[in-house]
Amino acid sequence: MMIGTTILITFLILLYSTICISDPCRFEYPGKGVIDITSLGRSDGKAAYADILPLIPSGYKYSYNPCKQFSEGSVCVNTAACQMSINEQYQYNIGEQETATWSPGNGTNIDPSITYTHDDRTFVVQLRCSTSEKAEFQVFGEDPQTRYTGRLTHKCACWNGCANATSTTTTTTTATTTTITTTAVPPSSNPCRFEYPGKGVIDLSFIGRTDEKAAYSDETTRTTSNFKYSYNPCRRFSQGADCIGVSVCQISNDNQQTFPLGIQESASWTPGSDFNSVPSINYIYKRKKVTVLLQCSPEGNNEFQAFGEDPVNNYKFQLTHKCACWNGCSNASSIIETAVRASKKSATIST
Predict the structure, then answer these.
(1) pLDDT, mean of residues 313-317
(2) Which of 66, 67, 63 lies closest to 52 in space, CA to CA?
(3) Quick one: pLDDT at residue 109?
């Protein structure tokens, strides 16, 4: 039984590591620090680096947006990287944000990198550390076939380059002037993870499904309504004809109509107060606004409630889960403890 428990714990640790590495905006590696490229990506659905010609001339140009998806042309829809012929007749999606995986490099002659895939195509972006605030994106092209390489040079490509901010406070007395420099860590977030100074981390990576389906599907409201709702934390999903690549979807009870309510790229967080308000994650789509209240449940409850639309174009939900707690799922220990308890319970029953 101990061997089985050890294997299970090892598997869960590896699973946790894989989930962390799949965050397209932020990479944390023990002993090295954090690489956060959130600030380099545009959030208006366009590429931060558009129509870049490769260093070795070819018949193609490339577009790339770190962290957030963009669309260009008819083929590259909600993607991370796109290859387009110079005459713009041909277009290929060469990587999606949801596939992002990171490599820390070896600290000597190999830079960290982030890799994206789409079907049989692979796009590797080398991350070159620079003290400059000016970003440079270079494309080396396609070699071998369906494998593409680029390089992003920026301060945010450095370990801890954009992971915190430094504020300077000056105190003046009649005799001397003393400069006190303090390091202030600002809130950081993406659709999966929210870190807030003094509170900790809320990580929803463990809850969202990865097969483009909703973790919480066709949830009805407490009061009578003509609609039901689906939601997938952290990752986009599709349902029906109109909810394509969304985070929240409204569905008519007869399943004939679907309406997007929010997309992952619009995610914003509020930490709540220390008294009577809970944290929340918010999404938007055109004029529609969604608020998902995050109710902490140390006991491990998993419940999603839909309160419906009130006022018009405003929708409220509540997610109750251990991962909705500050630091509830921010490390592997909570999962391991659950696995160990389950194994012990199983052993007791079998005995």
Answers:
(1) 94
(2) 63
(3) 60
